[in-house]
């Protein structure tokens, strides 16, 4: 069933999360609770609360938000329309998007557990589910009572998402982990100026970087940046194409004939690190890659000091426009108001995007996520679990998904001959408000859209977004982590520690450290929990495969 769903539409629906912000609901705390699906005494799920009967059901959300942008929830007309449609009252607690995971984990460890939490499936969700943090939904989700949820998430996905044989949440199949979403991005004009074509192999790319350095010494051949707060170091994919050309990718587990390993300790990883070390020593990699954030990398790009980098698919449009703006400013040809018209429907002018680079053996790997990477779970402390589940169910009707994803018909979007057209000029990018002073939080107030969610998404993509997404999701070298959906208590307890150690060692080696550090890392990785993780994954694999 899953194989039939994969392809362009599957990937595009998944990728749109870049425009959506993670949301969670927070209810009134209650010291009692458990994971049996039976609420604390006096809070029976079978009896809707008096508040729900009297008026809108209140949901307090921990809402991820780019706090650098203006926003006032009380003036969000789409939020108000959703509240009216679902008969709820949303009280958002705004937290910077980079701090979301940290803030959520703090709430999970306190008595202020959210009513509904969107949380990473790998490790975090499994850990909290086993601790009794979430309501057991096993007997509550079915074709009769929750048909909209079942349309979004097929039974086999629920089966994969079970923890100890029970359903503790709704898989979010629209997340970024449903496919590869990164591209190698290069300045097309710089490439043309040195008479080079788009590289297909790592060797061709390496030679191109050397040519750029020789002919444009003021330009950084390959840029990189550290992960954002709360993310794994190499989650930013700065060197994906280099690692991938050696047949490895940091952090991924592998399986062959029931035996597990991890690319972090693979001998081919050693070779990849030595190659990156060579590139760094030759000045082909930004000397600041280990310390700067993405915003600083952007500044170098916009000023013309960067040739190539790994980029998330949806960022290329804005980057191209910013480069054009900078070039027009240099030539004195920028409009007096300092603005360019929307460029999204124009072909890329300054950038060229491509997929994986092939290694010496003609192969490559690109780290693709799992079919789902997040879960929407209802807290065991919530006052009315069945009511919350019914709100999620109602939000997933086709009509309500149009509202939560695209906003108000006739204002945020129109359907012309059955095809969706989004009004891209409705909101001023500086004020984030429309002409009436309203904020429009489309794609921000979502409950649990799944694989079938994001209606009309493909046809809504402007040219540049469509081209960039197509390059990413059409990458034929995508692989998934073999540990997906397998149980390993040690992995939950030790993986952060092992990843932190890896990040430090790998960075040191790239920047010139002795390669013996890698051999020492492999020994420590195994002795400090890695070997036990592999053993537990193998046992879980055998159990799930019926062997």
From TrEMBL:
Keywords: Cell membrane, Lipoprotein, Membrane, Palmitate, Signal. Residues 37-49 have a biased composition (Polar residues). PROSITE patterns: PROKAR_LIPOPROTEIN (PS51257). Pfam families: SBP_bac_1. Transmembrane segments: none annotated. It comes from the Bacteria. Residues 31-50 are annotated as: Disordered. The keyword Mitochondrion does not apply. PANTHER family: ARABINOSE-BINDING PROTEIN-RELATED, POLYGALACTURONAN_RHAMNOGALACTURONAN-BINDING PROTEIN YTCQ. This is Extracellular solute-binding protein. It comes from Paenibacillus azoreducens.
């Amino acid at each position: 069933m899953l194989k039939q769903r994969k392809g362009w539409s599957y990937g595009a629906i998944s990728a749109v999360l870049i425009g959506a912000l993670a949301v969670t609901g927070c209810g009134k705390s209650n010291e009692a609770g458990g994971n049996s699906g039976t609420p604390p005494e006096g809070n029976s799920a079978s009896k809707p609360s008096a508040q729900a009967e009297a008026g809108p059901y209140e949901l307090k959300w921990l809402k991820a938000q780019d706090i650098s942008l203006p926003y006032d929830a009380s003036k969000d007309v789409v939020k108000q329309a959703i509240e009216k449609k679902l008969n709820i009252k949303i009280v958002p607690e705004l937290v910077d998007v980079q701090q979301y995971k940290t803030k959520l984990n703090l709430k999970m460890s306190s008595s202020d557990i959210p009513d509904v939490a969107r949380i990473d499936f790998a490790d975090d969700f499994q850990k909290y589910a086993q601790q009794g943090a979430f309501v057991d939904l096993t007997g509550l989700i079915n074709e009769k009572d929750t048909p909209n949820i079942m349309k979004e998430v097929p039974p086999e996905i629920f089966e994969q998402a079970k923890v100890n044989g029970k359903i503790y949440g709704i898989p979010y199949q629209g997340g970024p982990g449903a496919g590869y979403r990164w591209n190698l991005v290069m300045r097309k004009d710089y490439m043309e100026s040195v008479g080079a074509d788009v590289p297909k192999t790592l060797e061709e790319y390496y030679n191109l970087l050397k040519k750029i350095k020789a002919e444009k010494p003021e330009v950084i051949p390959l840029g990189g940046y550290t992960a954002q707060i709360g993310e794994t170091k190499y989650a930013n994919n700065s060197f994906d194409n280099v690692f991938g050309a050696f047949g490895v990718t940091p952090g991924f587990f592998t399986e062959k004939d029931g035996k597990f390993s991890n690319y972090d300790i693979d001998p081919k990883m050693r070779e990849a690190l030595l190659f990156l070390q060579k590139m760094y020593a030759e000045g082909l990699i930004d000397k600041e890659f280990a310390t700067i954030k993405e915003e600083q990398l952007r500044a170098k790009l916009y000023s013309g000091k960067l040739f190539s980098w790994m980029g998330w698919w949806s960022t290329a449009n804005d980057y191209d426009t910013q480069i054009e703006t900078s070039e027009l400013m240099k030539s004195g040809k920028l409009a007096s108001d300092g603005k360019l018209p929307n460029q999204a429907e124009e072909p890329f002018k300054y950038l060229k995007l491509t997929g994986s680079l092939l290694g010496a053996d003609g192969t490559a790997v690109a780290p693709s996520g799992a079919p789902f990477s997040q879960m929407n779970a209802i807290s065991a402390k919530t006052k009315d679990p069945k009511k919350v589940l019914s709100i999620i169910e109602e939000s997933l009707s086709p009509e309500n998904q149009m509202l939560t994803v695209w906003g108000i018909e006739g204002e945020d979007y129109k359907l012309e001959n059955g095809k969706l057209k989004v009004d891209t000029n409705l909101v001023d990018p500086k004020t984030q408000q429309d002409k009436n002073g309203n904020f429009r939080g489309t794609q921000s107030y979502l409950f649990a859209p799944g694989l079938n969610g994001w209606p009309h998404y493909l046809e809504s993509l402007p040219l540049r977004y469509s081209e960039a997404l197509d390059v990413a999701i059409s990458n034929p070298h995508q692989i998934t982590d073999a540990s997906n959906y397998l149980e390993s208590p040690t992995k939950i307890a030790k993986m952060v520690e092992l990843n932190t150690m890896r990040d430090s060692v790998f960075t040191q080696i790239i920047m010139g450290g002795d390669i013996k550090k890698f051999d020492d890392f492999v020994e420590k990785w195994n002795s400090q929990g890695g070997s036990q993780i592999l053993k537990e994954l193998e046992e879980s694999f055998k159990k799930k495969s019926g062997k």
